[in-house]
Amino acid sequence: MSVLTQSKEDYLEAILVISLEKKWVRVSDLADYLGVKMSSVATGIRFLAENGLVNHEKYGYIELTREGIRVAKQVYARHKTLYKFLHDFLGLSEPVAWRDACRMEHVLDAKTMKRLLKFLEFIETCPEGEPLWLSNFHSFLKTGKRPEPCLRREK
Amino acid sequence: MSVLTQSKEDYLEAILVISLEKKWVRVSDLADYLGVKMSSVATGIRFLAENGLVNHEKYGYIELTREGIRVAKQVYARHKTLYKFLHDFLGLSEPVAWRDACRMEHVLDAKTMKRLLKFLEFIETCPEGEPLWLSNFHSFLKTGKRPEPCLRREK
DNA sequence: TTATAATGTTAGCGTTGTCTAACATTGTTC
DNA sequence: GAACAATGTTAGACAACGCTAACATTATAA
Fold this sequence. Notes:
Two copies of one chain form a homodimer. The first copy, chain A, is about 65% helix and about 5% strand. Chain A has helices spanning about 5-20, 25-35, 40-50, 65-90, 95-105, 110-125, 130-145, and strands at about 55, 60-65. The longest helix of chain A has 24 residues, at about 65-90. Chains A and B meet through helix 5, helix 6 and helix 7 of A and helix 5, helix 6 and helix 7 of B.
């Protein structure tokens, strides 16, 4: 499949996300969701339709094709991973984390995405739940101080 | 000052970086460094000159103005912070980390940059040097296994 | 059912930023 | 200093992607 631009990936992801809630996705939904005009959506969707990523009849609903779903899910997965890192780990607010995740999702190397995922996995699979150093970091963010001296290996 | 595009920020940063080594910066240096043609550099530089960010006489050397230096240093600082996170912390290779940092540096919210900086500070100011959990993470990256059970608070 | 509102499409424009090709200047070498 | 190489500039094309304005279709409500 031809390489998609950032904008096209955004359209695909938006269709997926909207369709998680709305059953039918229309041009106006996408325009609202992405903050662009309907005419811009129309242009973008035409391209995606011509390239077999969406089905769309004039004045009708928009639907992802099998291939479109595949791509959209990839993009959405990257978005969620980045969001988790920015929001759950770095503690950024929901809107900032969501927007930055959206901007990062198109530019990062696959290796970087994988590595971030590894990092989140490292935290989440900690045998004792949230690791102490992470609590310490979050409290460091709030107070500017370390709540405890750094941890040492258990004796 | 007018808001600069990603491309313009890249030109400014590149001038700064090159001038750290070369004393004189020329159009060809920038073209090599950024992987674009000289004609593209010429266009970009003209804009920057018109907006008081660089000095450049036809067929001459390129120099940042005071304002240009200010902006370039900001961009470079973001780049270095991101690089440190991607390379030193996540353990990504130098080229991947450098390139992704370059892509991220233009899109992240100031809050996100600050927060990343905080995180790096949290690690670097650990009283005992590199925290054990970080070593554990790096070894987790290599082996896929945790070298130790998670740390507990000292008794 | 007809007027109006909402929605969707198309054409055409502006911006950004790259490129190629042609031309201009400067540097180098004999 | 003449010829050639290296470097720099300009003009013009193209791609992406947003926009406005005008028009087309569909939905809604009187």
